[in-house]
Amino acid sequence: MNWLATMMTETFFQRIPSIFLCFLCFFAANLRALAAEPDRDSPEAELASFKLPPGFEIHLWASERDGVVKPIQMRWDARGRLWVVQSTTYPQLKPGETPNDKVLILEDTKNGGYADKVTVFADGLMIPTGLEIAPVSVSEPDLSNDSEVVDGRHPRAIFPRLKSSSACYVGEGPKLWLITDTTGKGVADKREVVLRGFGTGDNHQNINSFRWSPGGELMFSQGLHAHARVETPYGIVGLDEAGLWRFRPAEQRLDAFFGGSADPQNPWGWTFTHWGQPLISAGNSGNMYYALPEMIRGYQGGRRDTIWAEGRGRKTSNPELIESSHFPDEWQGAIVTGGYINNAVWTLHVEQDGAGFKISDDPKLPPLVQSAHGSFRPVDVKLGPDGALYICDWYNPIIGHYQASFRHPDRDKAHGRIWRVTYPGRPLVEPPPIYGASIPQLLYNLRSPERFVREQSKRELACLPRDMVMGELRAWWPRLDPTQAATEHALYEALGVCEWHESPEAALLQRVLSSKTPEARAYAAGTLARWADRLPPAFDAVEKLADLAHDQDPRVRLAAIVAAGNIPRPESMVVVLSAAMQPRDKFIDTALTAATSALKPQWEPVLAKGAPDWKPEWYALIKTLDKPAPKPAPAKKVAQQMGAPVVPIYGRVRASPYVVGSIAAEVQTKGNAKHGDEVFHRAELACISCHRVGDQGGKIGPALDAIGSAQPLDFIIGAVLEPQREVKEGFETMRITTKKGEELIGIIVAGNDAEITLRDPTGAEHAIAQADVAKREFIGSLMPAGLTDNLSPEDLRDLFAYLTQLGKVK
Fold it and tell me: Closest Cα partner for 265 from 213, 344, 204?
């Protein structure tokens, strides 16, 4: 009881005022410190971390304060409203939790440069991963009173939107939804399942990154662990593992491309060049791909080369091509893309590469945005109606789907931002009338230099009655001045309008096929295949393609091969063989293989009968183009088993919480990244033999260029000390035993029902027929545990200091 006696002394009571004063001073000092340093999760703290090129500015357009939480994808509509799909349920529903993910509509009604109105269009969703605005059909106006004039225009030309109805497509697990507001209240009241049966093996690889093609096709993707079987009016469409989808709503036609385990293992993002050529982002590897050579119905599988050789692990999603007069001239035609793993928005240069394209870091332009804030995760970028660029910021310190617990307390569930990038030295765009505009106005908009205006005008035209649109279009396009540079592109856009309406126009198609611009001819070749069964008898699609197969431009010849592959006739193979006799490159070779495979049911019976119309040299040529795939074994496929790891599971040092925490503390206080770089490159560790950093290294393990900005330090330490703890997707080590008793160990880099390609620890690749596989085992990681056992504590500390800074803005 001595403490009580002390408290009751007069001296103690005399000291109370001074003690209380000290407490107040301490509290006030800390309050000032808190006020001086904003919350790291606040928009203000993140804004302060941004670095932009001279002349550009960035500011907050919407955030969690407006209800934007964990946004995944965003799309603009013709009314200048931004639609956002978001998920707080991701990555996994908790027991007892009711999912309530949402589609929001955001508006800047006061032109203040930020969203001031937010409407919940749809809720109750569970991890939606794709969003695109759907055209809403508008009925023809009442023409009973021919003298009636509305807004100074004849009613035949305008379509008042009395109900202002809206709709969107949403991808949610196995379903493709069409969600509609039929009342004009801004809230969905109708939901329809358009398609179901998409793969859900891993919810960060579900159908995603929806985007309309120039011809009104809904394009989207799926990842490595998805296995889809989708019922359509044309039968079941299957797609196993990573691949691309194309849906034509008017036909209800669904097509699947790529497939298998080759890159891109998690495609996430479509964009289209100025002339409508499809480019794909790989969300898993920091690569990009040109999709067209393999977009032949019925062909899946194979391997393809990246067109972004300098990707270096900079994983990206949902790119955008800059065609906005608000941006400086030197930025026109650049690709910007959200580099979510590096906390950046990259600026890329796209150029022709033979029949295809190549992408590189733009030599003249810096990244548009870089941030030192580890939670800045730009997952989508899109041009807005004002010509500014809008950035969808998922905002999360943890982005690893497997690398951290689904219940990890640092997984953010409360934040999300939309940022707006402007160039104050140039005026913002004032778009022409689009929503509710007359058909002549919308057709006039097709000549706009603004990508937003052209895309939105075509979708608006898709809402209007087909006969009225086509009647106006038939009168419009022949009047275009052929001497103006913009005319050829306007004709290409007009062809896209016809495709949106599934309304073949032979005269317009012929005009674009004979264009002096090769990009236009290449696009028209694809339209030929799309309309092949609906064109007039005198307009033979295969004959037209036979001419294009000899075009001087390789892009046109490539397009002719792909188009012929999509017309299942014996004579289509003549187009393919003719093109194969012309100069070729890797893109054309890929298309030749795909077309030959897809057309085999047509040309093989003809060849068996002697093929009297074939040139003599074609008989030898077909043997080089036809790459016969071995038939799968008649028995059940070999089951994948779990085998013993090929390397030890543990080294001398275990990744216990105490060990990981102790090393992390040393790294943060004393780590020397420069010395760690030297440790990483030591020959005895052989890190660089398997992992790539920059332009150096192997391909047996994942590229490490961005590991520091992608993963928390504690995960990096644990993964090095215990490699079997978590194996990155696409780098799972397999032991394959053949029926002859041969045993091969490595990672599978490509595969389909016919064969797999295995890359062994030396980097050599082996093609193995599925029919020859007797046993297939997953045996973990090739990285040996105990690799760092002989390092000194300082070396180990500095190694992690080096790894944790890779990918971060310095």
Answer: 204
